[in-house]
Each structure stands twice: as structure tokens, then as C-alpha cells.
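Batch manifest, entry 17 of 40.
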Amino acid sequence: MIKKIVCEGDRARAKLLKGAETIGRIVGATIGPSGRNAIIYRKYKAPLVTNDGVSIARHTYLEDEIEDLGAQTVVESAMKTNEQAGDGTTTNVVIAVAIISKCFKMLGEGLLGQNVNAMQLKRDIDAAKTKALELLKAKVTPLAPGDLQKIISTSLENLEFGKTIAEMIETVGKDGYISVEDNWATQYGLTTETIVGMKFLGTYASPYMMTNPRKEAVWEDAPVLVTNARVEAEDLQPLLKQLAEHQQRTLVIIGGYSEGTDPFSKPFVSVIANTLIAAMKGQPNLLKILAIKAPSLTSEELEDVAVFCDAAFIDKGRGMKLKDVQMTHLGFAKKVVANEDDTIITGGRGNTAERLALLTEQLDLEKDPMFKEKLKRRIASLAAGVGIIRVGAMTETERGYLKLKIEDAVAAGRAAIEEGVVPGGGLTLKAVAEELGEDNILYEPLKAPYETIQENAGGSLEIGEDILDPVKVTRLALENACSAAGILITTETAISERRKSLWDELEHKLYPEDERSSFRDSENMDAGAGRLIED
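Output type: C-alpha cells
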């Protein structure tokens, strides 16, 4: 039997407000340069120490079920901001809680005034938000040289790291993918790797294909064949004959696993190896083939590679056969480097615009976080490049702290590239509030981030002109805060399931089933969250 708590009217709004204000205090304490950390218990892991608003919010659950509904409504809006911009979650929470608090107070002494209509308040919030966004847009300036480093350095509180990460973002571009990973090999600091081109898990089919002591196979100015069909030597005879006629001496074949089997037959790999050995012994006119096994690539990802190289994807699922491949089906790469783990292709001549548009549309529709990350990587490989930041630290707790800081800084930098910047530290929202005027419903809420930053710093913080915020982050924080607040202030009834507690376990042991029916009567429940009903 599922027991539910129902709370109505004044009491519901009081508890929802209390829950929202609780999450506001917890998260608000982290905002600004003097913001504090929270330490979070994690089962079977080191504690998480962070001042990342969304990380704290998503780990916060209040003991009172109805209060928790108010808190989680605010948290949901912050997580939406994090999903869209990767930063700005604390600002979101502070604004949302300020709006909710103001509106509930406007609803009367008992939180239910006869002369104030909650739906009208929501309409006022929506109208004020529209005006505030117009004012915000007027304050935007494009990203100037050096601004990106300022934003990242401010977020990280580290000038050296800020410069390194800013350079990486500029290299891979706004569509590039940046991964922040653990570095278990070093004790402290950052190591970075930037790849301009397409990188994927794939290795050469035979060690005889290596061309240097670093155990790499490097092929330059090579035609490229991409397929998910199993490659046999006899299937490629027509193509190899054409290559010989055109004096083409190299070929790269990228193959994915087909129904669990190796993409290249052993006789085919043996022929390639013998040919390479013969070429090294003084027969330079022989055709040299680099065969790359890419077991992790799906057919869609293999097709991405084909598009990048301007090749026709030879897909056995569509009835295409290797024996029918012509030179016109081949793509081209300026350089292909394969090692024991990865393959990097640079200088592909394909036009990726149409493919990128398709993947971007899929990304907008995708809801699963894992698949969204995979789509982001695919888009980055096609569009620009991939950056990898590896974080090392003395302890696992410190490493987790640095990773979250770096992820926020990267997100802020990329958001700044997309839509430009505004003065930071809450100054822009404060200026917008003053332009709206004291009578506007968003006047105090928009000043709340600046005031909270000052409060955390003891009230004496001077915010310089070099402090910048991405306008995308500020905009989304405002929009999502207004959305959450508008929903919560129009709530009349709150319903939640009663959670099991230590008291419930004790009740179960002390009282038989037939004696527990009246253990919590309606009077007891009135003193708590509200009515108790059974489903």
C-alpha cells in the first residue's frame, strides 16, 4: 500500500517556500569569488568537495517531503540551465528563490491574500522577463581578444590553466568537443591534447604496417575506402587494378566489425603484409595498403568517417558489394595516423555541412545523456576537433573538485563564443533591475545574485571591469528561474509519497499490522506535512 501526503493552501505554500529557500541558502553560499564549498557523501567513493551549484543541488534532498517538492522544482530548473549552458546554475537558483519568496509574501500575511491573484503574478513575471531579456541583449559585447582567457581564469581562479584551456577552445572551435578526464599517471596539474581532425578507436591490422619507431602507421595523400563488409582479397581485385592503372601506390581501408567477425580476412592481411615487406626490400612500385580495424564504430559512425573523407560508405546492409567498388567511391585524406589504439585522419576533403545539420538536429531531440555525449563527439570530429584535458591531483577528492571547476570553466568559455559577454559579478543583472524600476516584480530578484556575492565576501567586494560573464549563461539562468518560480507560485496543492524512515522501521517492529491502522491519525498528520491518504 502506497501512502501519500496531501498538503493544501497556506500550509502547502509555506512548506514549498521553505524548501525553495533552503536550497537557495545551500547553493547561494557557493556564488562568487568568496563562495564556500559543500562536502557531499558518496557511497563507496571519496567525498565530493565542490562549489558547483548543480552538483550540490542534485545531491540535496530535504527530510520533509513537501518542502522537498519546493526544493526539487528549483533544482530542476538549475539542471536545465546546466544542460543548455553548462554553467550559471547558482545564479539560476538565487534568482528563482528570490522570485518565489517575493511572490509568496505578496500573496498576503497568511500566504493567501484575497486581493492578489497568483495567475496574475505569473503573467507579471513573464512580462518582466521579456523586458529584462531585451535590456540584457542591449548590453552584450562581442568576445574581444583576451576575453576568453579572462572568463576561464576567473572561473578557475588560475591564470596558467585559464590560458591553456582558452587556447584549446580557440583551436577546436565552438563546435569542437572537449573532454575532461582523470589523469592517474601524474600527481598534480593538467595535461592537454588537442586533435584537429577526426579521431576514433581503430588500429592497424598488422604490425608490418607501422612506418616509424613510435609504432605508428602514417599514410599521406591517400585514397580512403570505408566499409562495414568483410574484406577478402579477391573482392578488391577490380579496384586494385584501377589504382594500378592510375599509378596510385597507396590505399587506406577503414573497416568495422561485421557480425562479430574481423573486418579483414587473414589471407588478405597476409597479402598486404607480404607486399609491404617486398616494398621495404626495394620494390617501391607495389601498392601499399593500410588496413584499419575500427571495432567500436557503428555503421552511422563509419558513415561519418566516409563523409569526412568524401568517400561513399560501402554498406553491406544496403546491399553494396566490394567487388563493385570503383575509384569514384574512394575518398581522400591528407594524412592518416594509426597507432596501437587510435586513428587520426586530417585533411579530409568532404563537405560535412549537411551531415552536421542532421547530427545537430538529432542532438536537440535526444534525451539520454549518454547518447547526447556520443552525438557531441561525432559532431566535434566532423566539425573541427577534439580537446582532452586530463586532471591530476594529490587525492581523489581534490581531483574531483578540480574536474568540476574545469568543466564549468570550459562551458563558460564556449558559451561566451556563442553569444558574447556582459559585465560579470551580478553587475549586469543589477543594472537591468535598476532599469526595470523598483515597482517591477523582478527588481529585487535580479539584484539578488550581486547581493549574495557581496554577502559571501563580507559586503566589501570590488568587482572589476575584467570580470565577464557569457550572456548565454545569464540569459538561460534568468529564463529558467522565471519558469520554475511561475510554476511554484501558482501551486495550490502538494502531493508526495511518504518516505520510509527509521521511525517507520521501528513502528513495523513494535506494532503488529492490525494495530498500526490508527498509529498516525489525522491529528498527528495535521501537525506535520498535511493529510495522509492511501493509494
